[in-house]
Design brief:
Blueprint (H helix, E strand, L loop, with lengths): L2 E2 L1 H8 L3 H9 L7 E3 L2 E5 L43 H6 L5 H13 L3 H9 L7 H18 L2 H16 L7 H17 L11 H4 L5 H17 L3 H13 L6 H17 L3 H15 L6 H5 L7 H9 L1 H26 L9 H11 L4 H8 L3 H15 L14
Antiparallel strand pairs: 1-3, 2-3
C-alpha cells in the first residue's frame, strides 16, 4: 500500500497538520499507521467529516453551507465565523481569487508559511488592487518565516509603492485599504510609518468591518510601541466590546496586544485573561501564528500559561517564533539600525525582557513558576551571549 505524510494529507485536504494528527489518533482515517512516532496515511484515504457541532443558538441559516460573497482585501480576515469552522467558511466562499487568497490567509495564520507563500505568489501581479495587496501582505510575512528575506522586501516595497502612487482620483475606500496595508506592514515590523498616511479617524470608517478590527489592532500596536499602554489597551477593550470579537483572526491579535499592554503595566491577571481569550479563539482552527509572532512582546506569558497546560502546542508556537523572529530581525535591524537580540533562546529572551523592565529575579520566578536561581542562570547566559555586563544594558537588545 502507498502512503503519504501528515503534511501531504493536510495539503491535500486543505486542513492543518494538527487536525490530520488528531484524526489519526482518533482512528478516523482508515488504514493510517504509526511507525517510529510518525503517522503514515494511505494515499486513497478520504478526509474524515468534521464532527464538531455548533451550539443550538449558532445553528442558524447563516451557518449552512451556502455561497458567501468574499470581499477582495483579506477576505478571511474580513469574514466573521464561529471558531472551529474556519475551513467551512472558506469552502462556502464563491470560487475565484478571493477564495484562493482566503485559503492563503488560513495557511499563513495557522503557521503553514510555505503553503501561504506559494498560494499568495500567484496573485502578486493581479490587476485587482485589493487582491494584489492581500497577496503582497501574506507573501511578505510568510517569507520572513521561510528566510526568503529578499522576497519579503520586494512584497513590502510593492505595498509601499501602491500607496505612494495613489492620486486624487483614487476612490476613498481603496485609498483607505492601501493605507491600512502600508501601515500594517510597517507597524508589525516596528518600522517608521510611510509618509502621507491619512488620519485613522478618516480612513478607518471606510474599511470593511473585519479589516477595520485588524486596523484597530495595528493602531493599538502602534500606541504600544510609543509606550502609551493605557491608550492602547483602552482601544483594544473598546474594539472588542464594539464587535471585533466576531472576527476571530482580528480578535486574536487584539487580545495579544492587550497582553503586551497589561504586562507592561504589571497587571498579570488581566494579561492572562486576554491570553486565554486569544487561545480560545485560536485553538479550534489552529490559528497559532499570531502567538508565535508576538512571543517576544508577551512578557513570558506563553511560558507561564500555555507551556504548562498545552506543552505540545507550545512547542509548535515556539517553532513559529524562531522562524518568524529570525526573518523579522533581518528586516527590522537592517532598516532601523537597532540590534534586537538574535542569539537568545525564547526562554532567555522572555526572562531578559522582564529583567530589562525592572522585574526582580523572584518576580520573574513567580511568574514562570520556576526558581529564582534558574532565572538568575537564564539572565547570566543572556548577558554572556550579548557580551554585556549589567542588566541595565539589556534594554538596547530587547523589544522595548
Amino acid at each position: 500500500m502507498d502512503y503519504i505524510t501528515v503534511q501531504e494529507a493536510a495539503q491535500k485536504w486543505e486542513i492543518s497538520p494538527r487536525w490530520v494528527q488528531n484524526y489519526c489518533a482518533q482512528g478516523r482515517i482508515d488504514g493510517a499507521v504509526k511507525e517510529s512516532g510518525v503517522w503514515r496515511i494511505p494515499v486513497k484515504a478520504k478526509k474524515p467529516n468534521d464532527p464538531r457541532k455548533t451550539t443550538s443558538h449558532q445553528k442558524t441559516k447563516k451557518q449552512e453551507k451556502v455561497p458567501v460573497s468574499s470581499p477582495g482585501l483579506m477576505p478571511l480576515l474580513n469574514t466573521p465565523f464561529v471558531p472551529g469552522h474556519c475551513m467551512e467558511t472558506i469552502e462556502a466562499m464563491e470560487n475565484g481569487p478571493g477564495k484562493k487568497i482566503a485559503l492563503a490567509e488560513y495557511h499563513y495564520f495557522s503557521g503553514q508559511a510555505e503553503l501561504a507563500a506559494e498560494e499568495a505568489e500567484l496573485y502578486l501581479t493581479c490587476k485587482q488592487t485589493d487582491i494584489r495587496l492581500s497577496a503582497c501582505l501574506i507573501y511578505a510575512y510568510a517569507n520572513l518565516s521561510l528566510g526568503q528575506i529578499q522576497h519579503a522586501r520586494c512584497a513590502l516595497a510593492e505595498m509601499k509603492k501602491t500607496f505612494a502612487s495613489a492620486t486624487a482620483n483614487t476612490p476613498p475606500d481603496l485609498l483607505a485599504a492601501e493605507a491600512f496595508v502600508a501601515s500594517a506592514a510597517a507597524v508589525l515590523l516596528h518600522l517608521p510609518l510611510p509618509e502621507g498616511l491619512p488620519k485613522p479617524q478618516e480612513s478607518m470608517p471606510l474599511l470593511l468591518p473585519g479589516i477595520r478590527a485588524f486596523a484597530l489592532y495595528v493602531q493599538a500596536h502602534y500606541l504600544y510601541l510609543k509606550q502609551e499602554y493605557q491608550r492602547s489597551v483602552g482601544l483594544v477593550e473598546a474594539s472588542l466590546v464594539m464587535g471585533a470579537e466576531a472576527y476571530p483572526i482580528a480578535a486574536i491579535y487584539l487580545h495579544l496586544v492587550a497582553v503586551m499592554d497589561y504586562m507592561s503595566l504589571r497587571e498579570q491577571e488581566q494579561a492572562q485573561k486576554h491570553l486565554l481569550a486569544a487561545w480560545k479563539l485560536a485553538q479550534p482552527d489552529d490559528l497559532i501564528e499570531g502567538l508565535g509572532e508576538h512571543h517576544g512582546l508577551l512578557g513570558g506569558m506563553l511560558e507561564a500559561v500555555i507551556k504548562p497546560n498545552w506543552p505540545e502546542d507550545f512547542k509548535r508556537i515556539i517553532d513559529i517564533t524562531y522562524r518568524f523572529s529570525a526573518g523579522w530581525r533581518r528586516v527590522h535591524n537592517s532598516v532601523t539600525g537597532h540590534d534586537v537580540a538574535d542569539n537568545l533562546t525564547t526562554t532567555e529572551f522572555a526572562t531578559a525582557m522582564l529583567a530589562a523592565r525592572g522585574w526582580t529575579n523572584q518576580e520573574i520566578a513567580d511568574h514562570f513558576g520556576i526558581s529564582a536561581n534558574t532565572v538568575k542562570r537564564h539572565i547570566s547566559i543572556a548577558l554572556k551571549k550579548l557580551k554585556i555586563a549589567h542588566r541595565r544594558e539589556l534594554k538596547q537588545y530587547m523589544l522595548l
